[in-house]
Design a protein that fits this description.
With 391 residues, the protein is mainly alpha-helical. The chain has a single domain, classed as Na+/H+ antiporter like fold, CATH 1.20.1530. Helix content is 77%, strand content 0%. Helix 13 crosses helix 16.
């Protein structure tokens, strides 16, 4: 099972079977992919699957970027910063305080707060796509939060990497912040102007599938490389590339070309994530903190959705729906945990449970919300038929 083709054939068969199981039982497919990865890891150990994780995140975030309008982002900049700040305050500080109360040291508490703070852009975006919820009004604040979280989590991760080799100086922290600010500035200018070049190239060379795939791939990975060069995550570069193509007049054609790659690589990402979970390192000592953090972090995300929904003028029910969409944690949590090996087993189980329960919550959000937001019974009119007809 060491050759690349053998590994890929096993993965594809596992994904195909997972999809059939999900369809049979009408269950969200993402947790099934993750569980399939865990089951495979019990029998085989692979060392070269990170490429699937990276490509999956890149394609998923690129597609989400395609759904974003730069004009809308400019228009709602204050709201994006507002809901991002709400999300950070509600989901970082309560977890940090809870960790301290549970007996974790200062550094471990900080890392746990960073691990549990960001929702999974990959899982949430996949759910919104698969469940056809992108048109829901509460998706706007959710996507704004995910963009803010990617930037904030990338900053925190960069700081933690410095912590792992000693306490970072204020100068080093400032350098990270400046890099992020510069990338956002240059990305905004690039998207605002380079979309005309993309339109020109497509109009000159046509919309043949092969040309569009090569054009999208070239620009996408150049921007991904630019983001990593600034010390940021691939997700930020991929999202930027998506917003660039969203500003062109050929957005729909690009979208059709990208979808098959998105579906395949997204599935491989979740399978690879399952492969990274080592159940042998999990013991009973994590049960109490795991339960506390699951309950607390779920409640704070739902509260985030409600408050963020209010900032966007949404109803309480729509805000709660947004909160349910933010429950799954994933790729960033694993990356952060890697800086503190003793927290990896806890993080793996937390991410698995949150991805499963979060996926179910998003799929069944209508039923869940109907329990708390009952429809008002229609009151029968006391007017006579003649009065209603205006006789």
């Amino acid at each position: 099972m060491e050759s690349f083709t053998s590994i890929l054939s096993l993965f594809m068969a596992a994904l195909f079977l997972s999809y059939l199981i999900a369809e049979k039982f009408k269950f969200p497919v993402i947790p099934i992919y993750i569980i399939a990865g865990i089951l495979i890891s019990l029998f085989y150990h692979f060392h070269s699957v990170h490429v699937f994780e990276a490509l999956g995140v890149i394609l998923l975030l690129f597609y989400i970027g395609l759904e974003f309008s730069l004009a809308e982002m400019e228009k709602n900049f204050k709201n994006i910063v507002g809901v991002g700040a709400v999300d950070f305050i509600f989901n970082f500080f309560p977890v940090f305080l809870a960790a301290r109360l549970l007996g974790f040291d200062l550094m471990s508490s900080f890392v746990i707060a960073v691990i549990l703070y960001p929702s999974s852009s990959a899982i949430v975006s996949k759910l919104l796509i698969d469940l056809k919820k992108l048109a829901n009004p509460e998706v706007e604040p959710v996507l704004a939060i995910l963009v803010f979280e990617d930037i904030a989590a990338a900053t925190l991760l960069a700081i933690l990497v410095n912590f792992s080799s000693g306490n970072p100086s204020s100068t080093e922290v400032l350098k990270v912040v400046v890099k992020i600010a510069l990338f956002i500035f240059f990305a905004f200018i690039f998207v605002k102007n380079f979309n005309r070049v993309v339109d020109f190239l497509i109009e000159k060379y046509g919309t043949a599938t092969e040309f569009l795939v090569l054009l999208v791939g070239t620009i996408l990975f150049i921007l991904v490389e630019a983001a990593t060069g600034f010390g940021l995550s691939e997700a930020i570069g991929a999202f930027t590339a998506g917003t660039l193509f969203a500003e062109t007049s050929h957005k729909d054609r690009v979208e059709q070309v990208v979808i098959p790659y998105r579906d395949l690589l997204g599935a491989l990402f979740f399978l690879s994530f399952g492969l990274s979970i080592d159940l042998s390192k999990v013991n009973s000592s994590i049960i109490v903190p795991l339960t506390v953090f699951l309950v607390l972090s779920f409640l704070t995300k739902i509260l985030t959705g409600i408050v963020s929904g209010k900032l966007y003028g949404l109803s309480l029910k729509r805000g709660a729906s947004a909160g349910l969409m933010l429950l799954p944690r994933g790729e960033f949590s694993i990356l952060v945990a890697a800086t503190t090996p003793k927290l990896v087993p806890f993080t793996a189980i937390y991410v698995l449970i949150s991805s499963v329960l979060g996926s179910i919550a998003v799929k069944e959000s209508g039923k869940i919300l109907s329990i708390f937001f009952k429809k008002k019974a229609k009151t029968k009119s006391k007017l006579t038929r003649s009065q209603l007809l205006g006789d």
